[in-house]
Request: fold
Amino acid sequence: MIQKQNASIYFAQGLDQKTDPNQVPFGKFLSLQNMVFTTGKRLTKRNGFGSIAAVPTSSGYLTTLNGDLTALGSKIQAYSSEFQNWSSIGNFYPCNLSTLSVVRSSTNQSQSDSAISSSGLLCMVWTDQNPTNLSANQYKYAVYDSTTGQQLLAPVVISDADPTYGFPRVFVLGNYFAIIYTSSSPYHIKCIPISLVSLIAGTTISITNTAGPFSTGAWDAAILNDTLFIAWNGSGSVGINITSISSTLTVSSTINPDAHSSTDISVCVDSTANIVYVNYYNASTYNGYTVAINTTLTVLSGFPVQSINSLVLSNISSCVSTSGKMNLFLDVTNSYSYDSSIKTNYIESSTVTQSAVVSSPSILVRSLGLASKAFSVYGVPYFLGAYTSTYQPTYFLINGLNGNVVSELAYENGSGYVSSGLPSVTVVGSTASVSYLIKDFIQSLSNANSSGTTTVGGIYSQTGISQATFTIGNSAVITSAEIGNNLNISAGFLWGYDGTQATEQGFFLWPEFIEASLNSTGGFLTAQKYYYQILYSWTDNRGNIFRSSGSIPLLADLSSSGTSTNSVGLFIPTLRLSYKNNVKIEIYRWSTTNPTFYQITSIKNPLMNNPSADYVTFNDNQLATNDANAVGNEIIYTTGGVVENIGGPSFKSTFTFDDRLWGIDSEDNNLLWFSKQAVEGAPIEMSDLLTVYVAPSIGAQGNTGPLTCGAEMDDKVILFKQRGLLYINGSGPDNTGANSGYSQPTFITSMVGCSNQASIVFQPGGLMFEFASEAGNQIWMLGRDLSTQYIGAPVERLTLSNSVTSAVAIPGTNQVRFSLSNGSTLVYDYFYGQWSEFTINAQSSTLYQGLHTFINSNGSVFQETPGIYLDGSSPVVMSFTTSWLNLTGLQGYQRSYWFYLLGQYISPHKLQLGIAYDYNPSSTQSIIISPSNFSGIYGLDLPYGDSSPYGGPGNLEQWKIFLNQQRCQAFQIQMQEIYDPTFGVTAGAGLTLSGLNLVFGQKKGYVPLPFNQGAS
Reply:
């Protein structure tokens, strides 16, 4: 007779998905859902998550500011716990920026265009200096890997091009890159097809030989339904011409829908209605027109129509929005009236409908000219705009519906207004890529020419070409850091949110193009030299005063006037690119008598910015502002060598350390910014003088790649690369940038890294983070002793194919919770060192009122509710799958009689048990357990006292389960809690589980197998 034995399995351990499922140790689980380890050796149901009012607009990121719940999406939404609703604070534009250096040489590039194939090939075409004749240009093209920038096809000069007029463009047409360019005598438009498979150029195709001169952008093209539609200005008085090229490189016949000649053309398409719009403008008549055609080159009724009336334009561009309207953007040539040599273009917008109805143009955004063709992402039009100046030329990505800034690019390194050939934009889903010129080699230039004559301007800037990629909308990854009484948000630029409005953190631009007029009468300034510095100032709702960098000091020399009745008139350009309202313009004056910059504008009656005007004036002529009265006024904040404030760029990620905001530059991932130290009552202030360069290569480790994210731990800031970890410790510099105690970035010996800021979370043992390995995503920990540990091994089957979307450590527990992209949440108990899983679909999580709060992919928000066991209206149910219970060895032969399940009854529930045998995970035995512990309200049993035992059944829950297949190698228990609405009560805690006691007997040390499963 087989002697019965027993084996106890205590529920003291968690998931183990790293071990072979057939050999997972007793007590560990293959699945363990909605249970926590609050008490040793006992499984307890987790709390539910109660529903908070859903966010009314699309949002994908949840955080807090000053303890108030905040959601970020297309708008910033603030939650009121008192009224239990969300309030819209204002517009916000999620956006990620990345850049790729593509073309650099000893010559200057003056125009570029690019296209990206579905396989990731980047074809770049550009206008370059001819190295053998630097006063002439030539066209070139090359092919690169769009991710790494690796050159795949070396630059090729287009030998028969005529770069005197026009510019080249490139498109993806079927299985080709179609490079369109111009040649002369007579004027041709030609196409070079480059195979996307072999990267070999095919036979050049002539599109037309009747084109007009191309001194400006008098041709353009766009793709619709895998067909390239090209429009150009015909030679003589022919006017506009349109043709198409199919994906098999067949050129159609040409139509001539309008005799109006043009100097600038923009082509765009409506892929929903299958319409091609051609917009054309004549710089001589200042008028422009629009014609719309279908894919058979038939002109639509009502077209052509006049769409531009008496405007002096530098460029035009167009795209189609979701409304079905064609959006037309006009780059209006403009200058300051006090100095016509200073250009300050602005952009007007209008629309044209399919029925040829043209709206009146209105000013969309000031201070910018067009720097790219317009494009549409999910129905919203955008374009790249250029701010042109000597000291801070910059590009801005603009929302074409309202003129708001979405991203900032190449601050102080932009190439300025685009004079010919607006670059095309490749759009795939929410991602838009465009080439741009960048002045990346800047050096001083001798002030004397070859004759020894002094020249004006001492800076040389060489241009190169880079590729910018914008991810727009909820696909963008957002990070934030609360410091300086603001929520500082990394997106297309650094945002600051004070609880009432979201603006750029700092200022996009500082005052420039300031001029002075000297007056010999009408004032009380002493005859001497004066210098003026001007800056923008703004106070947020927290009382923080933000100040821009000061202008270049402007000299007003009254020393030779010989009178004391002098004045200085100042012309000051306004701040027109800003989310800030009620910006002040502060003027500081230095004089020979008082060589300190004192503020001379009134604090009580300040000089206010007027964003609808190009400039304001200030007349420094009052006795109240003379030297004697100015002494004692506020001095400019840069006095004493304090570094100037520069608004933060687009950051790849943000974090805090040493009471400072830190960020990784999106355009140069090897560059780390840090702010001035946060002090009471002052905002966070960034400067491009406060940066750390972190080399991509570290000794024997080799190239560890660029920086990806960071986090504070103890006295260090931990810097993550995709395959590397570093740290910086010490205290930072003072506000002059001197006396820095920061260490050099020090490599932490490891083979792991992190590229997901949302996955980094601190717990008492150190920083936990996601490492993207070749095998998939893994959760690791950097200990406080700087050792690394693969702490997520037991749950790697859940993490490998899913990324972490948020991570949060829960106060009052020992839990760290990781939300995954598949909708589940992993829970690590760092006291017991065990993992479990919650079935909650958290897209982004935060702590609100000390409780875990998350938003799901539908925009619904939930908060943990202790003692309540509902997720919204759905009951929380527990489940687990045990390891394989092979009590006599891996393939021993056992007789398993029954097992006992021990727990504690808390509230009505049922248990469904499934039992699988012999390593086949499909259960063949199913049992429903209905506990009888439930009793009604005391005293309501009829007749009174009839319950057995008297007073209720008690809370012990103990079951004996018999196995149908007693003879087996192993068996596995699958438990699923069931809540039945017929219980008549709200779903509750159900039960706790302490363990199993197995009763078995050993038959043999091996299992008998059929003859056909043997081999010899």
The two ends are 34 Å apart (CA to CA). The helical segments are 627-630, 796-799. Residues 627-630 form the longest helix (4 residues).
